[in-house]
Amino acid sequence: MSTILQPPPPHIEQKINYLNVDYGWRSWLFTTDHKRIALLYLFSITAFFFVGGAFAVAMRINLLFPEGLVDNDTYNKLFTMHGIVMVFFFLVPSIPATLGNFLIPLMIGSRDLAFPRINLLSWYIYIVGGIFTMTAVLQGGVDTGWTFYAPFSTTYSNTHVILAAVGVFISGFSSILTGLNFIVTIHTMRCPGMTWSRLPLFVWGHYATSIIQVLGTPVIAITLVLLGLERILHTGIFDPKLGGDPILFQHLFWFYSHPAVYIMILPGMAVISELVSCYSRKSVFGYGFVAFSSLGIAVLSFVVWGHHLFVAGQSMYASMVFSFMSMAVAVPSAIKVFNWTATMFRGSISWETPMLYAFGFIGLFTIGGLTGLFLATMAIDVHVTDTYFVIAHFHYVMVGGMVMAYMGGLHFWFPKITGRLYPEGWAKFAALIIFVGFNLTFFPQFLLGYLGMPRRYATYPDEFHALNVLSTAGASILGVGYLIPMIYLTWAWRKGPLSPQNPWKAKGLEWEQAPTPPPTFNFDDPPIVTEPAYNYSAIPEEVHRG
Ligand code: HEM
Ligand SMILES: [Cu+2]
Questions:
Q1: What are 279-289's pLDDT values in tens digits?
Q2: pLDDT (tens digit per residue) in 188-238
Q3: How much is the pTM?
């Protein structure tokens, strides 16, 4: 944080911008500037990423040995807290709260979000939620799994379930308010000429995400309230002894949590559309299809939750419908992959770091999505459900997809955010390490799952040893891969060379019309849009204004 709280050294001349307009902690903690709030999120989310990562490291070390190192109860807590922190405090807010917050007003040519104070409130709510959940962690942890399944969470677990659930409940409001803020902003604050059909796909992706956030998150909030009531007052909603049904909990949980996986991936897809077109110097192929596939995903994501209940005793007919719908939700995702590929076809591709992450995303997300189709096929799912195959599937989408997009986006907009350039050589090196480490960590888990190793166990039979050692080796490489950008980005923020206004010669208001870094209200002159998004064919060389 100290980087941004101190004035820059006097020998560097920078125009007044959102970073140097004011110093001191008050100017940050009471800011209503969407760009500063985005940075508040960036630092807090990064902190949660490393907390969640620490639990992952502990798990992987434990799994180096078939007999394990920690006892079963401790291991239960490790994977639970890893999941809760990563899903609710990193993945769900990550891209929308940081890049979305920073970029949506810039991309649509407005001074800020529609409700700047609510935006700040969202960050405080997120932090308060985080404090509750971290208190649960510090007091000894939770062991229910991030899924909080009843009856274990409601009746049998003797860990800090309520405290952790309250934290997740509270942070949900941050997500709802952010979504609401984005929807209203995108509807009402577009500058002259920024029609819906000229909206950058980044904005379309966030629009679709916001719809899910607003419609889905209240359901998890209610579910967690019911869980609390059941645990404290024994209301009997989930307890068969009192006329309740534990499977109802799974329905309620996944009614939110499946759409939530699209809260995590849609913003990633949104980033990739921007990167692919910029580094291919081409308009995104099939703009309309890519935009509407986001909305398609948002709608369909609400009708597939039952694929998490294939083995839970759900009616066979329900399972058939859910299986079919899960196949259908893959169609809009596939449309995007096809369109990005077509965008690159005959493009003038350059291999800067953000594009490396985009390639990583496309390949790894495809593996994650296709294995999702395996799982959506009931006959296969019965075999691999609750095994490492599922773990590998969702890490390919969430880490191989979402985190790759996040890293790509952070690099792409780093000059915009900080006014400085990062070291390209180090960045390429780190991207490569992350790609190798990721695959070495998670590919063996597909094999482990297929061979029958169940998830959520502290120990395993000897025959799974070699693949687990491979996975832990990969995790060490991946861990180093994530630390390298932490170091050079922090360095570049203070000491990196100053960036020209548009270092990538990218299209879009945020690059072409806003100064780098932008002033508090984003634009020196009111922006006007006169051309479609990604009009790269019309780009004159002198756009490279310094
Ligand atoms: C291409 C579309 C997708 C399909 C058809 C699909 C299908 C499935 C199915 C059937 C399961 C349940 C497996 C089981 O429990 O036995 C599952 C689990 C999961 N998927 Fe996907 N998936 C898709 C995309 C995604 C995406 C994009 C994400 C996240 C960004 C994701 C995250 C997860 C998670 C977190 C779980 C496991 C939850 C748990 O039990 O802890 N999936 N997926
Ligand atoms: Cu699902």
A1: 999 999 999 99
A2: 999 999 999 999 999 999 999 999 999 999 999 999 999 999 999 999 999
A3: 0.94
The answer to whether the beta carbons of residues 407 and 431 sit under 8 Å apart is yes
**Whose alpha carbon is nearest atom 7 of ligand 1?**
372
Asked if residue 133 lies in contact with residue 211, where contact means CB atoms within 8 angstroms, the answer is no
Q: Does the Cβ of 264 fall within 6 Å of ligand 1? A: yes
CA distance 455 to 450: 12
User: Which atom from ligand 1 is nearest to the alpha carbon of 327?
Assistant: 5
pLDDT of residue 9: 52
b/e string for 417-431 if b means 16 or more Cβ within 10 A?
A: bbbbbbbeebbebbb
CA dihedral for 320, 322, 327, 328, sign (positive or negative): positive
| Residues 524/16, Cβ–Cβ less than 8 Å | no
> Which residues have C-beta within 8 Å of that of residue 289, sequence separation ≥ 6?
335, 339
pLDDT of residue 538: 73
- Substitution site in 380, 390, 406 for ligand 1 pocket (most atoms within 8 Å of beta carbon): 390
CB 223 within 8 A of CB 175: no
Strand partners, 420: 498
Q: Give the span between the Cα atoms of 464 and 286, in whole angstroms.
A: 45
User: Residue 541 pLDDT > 70, yes or no?
Assistant: no
- Least Cα distance to 204 among 278, 100, 119 occurs for 100
